[in-house]
Amino acid sequence: MPADFCRPCARGCLRLSFTPLSRPEVAAYLQKQHKKSAEEAAFLAAISMGSIGVGLALDKDALTEKRRTWIDRLGALKAGDFQSAMTTAEVLAGNREEALRFIKWAESWYRDLLIYRMTSQPDELVNLDMRAEVEQQAAQTSVNGICAAIANIVGAGAEVQRNLNRRMVLEKFLFGVVGERR
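^ thats the sequence. predicted structure below, dont judge the formating
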């Protein structure tokens, strides 16, 4: 195995990194080995970003509902409405694990906006079932704004992982979102 694939961790363990599987590979596996419908397998393959383990751990219906709630919350934020950003941050920050799930999803959301904004192609979208919303928000947000949001949400994830105040971390991220919409 090439040396660049093997990295020792702090405890001297050998860490192996693998590239993600393709969507068709994940979907085919989920259909064949776990009896998922073609629609559910395609959804899970997209949202898992090439990880069979992640795809198997996801509950499609619960995740779809949660993502719909999150996109509604982000979509309801208006330019300069910092009060709504604070209220939204307070709701999202209530539970650490839930906040981290939101942050992970928001990373994929802004990734999708950037991909669609740059290519106008839906092929590589993670949130493919929300294509209409991706198209709409990508058209309304500058590339610089999307890149700033990605940097801010990645930073927010690291800060929540370090146990910084979740509400304040999410407020900072959402202030950037409402500030960019001006």
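The beta strands are 6-8, 14-16.
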